Fold each of these.
Amino acid sequence: MNVWATWCGPCVIEMPTLANLQAAYAGKPVEVVTISIDSEDSAEKAKLFIGKHPPLKFYHDRSMKLPFALKPAAAGMPTTVIYGADGLEKARVSGEADWAGPDARAVIDRVLAGD
């Protein structure tokens, strides 16, 4: 789960790498869920932006409360939380990351293996 916004430069930079990650795990039990915390006024802009990064889907936190609902709360944007099949948090990254790189894939592979 990636919490992001169009006004967040690092969020915009990392989105193509999240799309690459999702594509690399096609057919596997991995779903990259990108949740925009843009305001209602910017929601259409965010939806169009995600549309440029298939196979990602658009999700919108209209209340903009998700970053604060996480335990612990998100330290900033973007924040990515990786959950295991058991629904428990396995890893978290605050700030921009290269999700298409080998380090990110190693983390995902470990979570898939149940480690």
Note: The mean pLDDT is 95.
Amino acid sequence: MVVKAKLGIDNRQQIEAMSKRFKGAVLTVLLTLALIFGFGSQAALALSDQQKLVMEVWRIVSRAYLDDTFNQQNWWFVRQRTLRQPLNDWESAYAAIQEMLGGLDDPYTRLLPPEQYQSLQTSTAGELQGVGLQIIKAEADDALKVIAPIEGSPAEAAGLKPKDRILKINGVETAALSLDEAAARMRGPAETQVTLTVLREGETPFDVNLVRQRISLNPVLAELRSTPELPKLGYIRLGQFNGNAIADLTQALQQLERQGAEAYILDLRNNPGGLLQAGIEIAKLWLDQGTIVYTVSRQGILDSFEASGGAITQDPLVVLVNEGTASASEILAGALQDNGRAQLVGQTTFGKGLIQSLFDLSHGAGLAVTVAKYETPDHHDINQLGIQPNQIVETAPLSRDRFGTEADAQYLAAVELLAHSTQIAGVHP
């Protein structure tokens, strides 16, 4: 018993000593944390405007970006590394943010400095100034690739085509430029010149001299045509899904219906896309019911957009597509194909199945962020794969003024397909 009592006293003394040391350690830790958070708060209060912009971009991407692994990066460390850079002016801040976003390996998620952001907003509203090319940069050290030239633009007039590669802009290699730096070099005052060095598959590089112009975007061309096979054919060409597209196409379709159109060709070739909502609303003009598109967020949540009884016409429809048919054009084409509303004729589409949102930033800048991907009604993920037409028709490259003419093999195939389907349905004797 005595031994046990003595051991008990020793234990209490050891415990008390350990407790004092533990309390001291805890106090030290708490003081350290207080200092850390205190300095952190002071640092936050002392952030420059440029550092605040970095934080703003970082927070938006952290909340909204499709890939929650951020391309297998520790996104917090990326922020800290970026903030440690000397951000003494707006140009250095923009460069640092572009470098930060470049680690995502996503050409569609990008900073838009004020001038570029304003230009993009103007473009989606219905006009732009420059050479009129929709471009993509798949890899940071790769050359630009053309999605499609815009209808009526200097680039289209010069014969530039989807999947052409732009190696240089005024002698500067595009592999060394970001997507927005390249776009900025192609923009400029009307009547000024820019030289592009172009590589086309199977050819040697060549230079194209373009004169920048102010381009008014009138996205819809519509005509009632008469062919031996189809006396009343409605031909509609949609060049872009901008702010004018829904109203213009609705008006064109209603006019063709009043004129007695009995079948339609919707030409989406070289349509690089644009506003997601425009693609959804235009699909509703052709569909009485059915899913138009599914969207999938980084949480894996499926959202869907549905048609519900608002179709203007049920007449037979063929949609023309090619490798320049991208983004919102693919949403529309996929919706019409998967719902059995139309057959697709032409070539496999571009394959852009990602959705971006635009965010306003301070100092007049903007941020485009990939926030979701889309799937067609039959749950096809077409990103980098494209949509396969029901009838593949290869054709020699055509200038846009020859689309829908006797020189256009894809158009002629669509006319023949419609003639066959309308005869079966009893529309013509």
Note: Residues 404 and 411 are 5 Å apart (CA to CA).
